[in-house]
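Contributing new records

If you add data, match the layout below exactly. Sequence lines come first and carry their own label; structure lines follow with theirs. Keep one chain per record. Anything else will be rejected by the validation script.
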Amino acid sequence: MNRPGRDNTRRNRKIGTEDQGWRKQSDFVIPDRWDMKSLAWKSYYEKLGPYIVVERKVHGRPLPIVVEPTKKGYLHPCTPTDIATLLELLPASCTFTIESIAGIVLRQPTRKQEQIEPVWGRLCYHSTVGPLEGPVIFLEAVGRGTSYSLPRRQPLAGQAELRRMEILLSNHRLEKRQHVFDLGPLELRRYVLYHTLIHEIGHWVDYLTKVVVPSTGPDHGKRLWDKYHQRPTQEKEAYAHRFSDEWRDELIRLGKIPFARQICRQAMKTEGLDPEWFSTGAPEDDAAGPALGLILPQRRTPIRP
């Protein structure tokens, strides 16, 4: 029996709010951390486990490459020598103008990071990671035998990405509502080496030409930095895509790419690297693969700083 004057529909106003404890312990986020050495907040991708540092020469200058061991079932798509060989094909001004790129990090993401922020690679404009300090390019290890899908209906920018993947990746099948690309070691290497790496260099060139080169002092540089990051993300991505497409097409015309995987197992073991982090050992996975097509409809002069 209901008590007279009581509203049976009334509920606790704190239900479902933070005051009740809702989601306080269940936020599925990637936490940043406070670094006691540099006294600054560091992003999750700047936190490395055990790593090995190797060095390669690019345009006569040393390029440190930090390598994290891969977990079972994962693969670094490119070897350190692959990266150095590709960067040698680009003009020195793209990588060593005024401020040089501090190095490359081949990192192993966690499963949580893969689920929340899956990326092929990223450019950090200033990072202190391992022995590196300055601009750093991160390239992610990828699970072996994974697949990547794109919806059949794509906006204009998505159509360009679909065209790019069709050119770089051979294992492509069309399903009812999506395009599916099966990513073996050969496909992973071709996409990361011939697009992702050049794409991140494109972001670096964009930053050089808009912030570093025209800067005349600390205050001016700060204003240019703010203006650079106020641009829409789509605009910055479009610049990096254009840089990658123009240089890849140019290298294809010159017969410089594709090239076979640059891997010397004995030399790697001497440096402390495990060849299985980079290759299955199958000859077809280490080959150059089929010829690459051009993505741009007409020839364009590649961007230079």
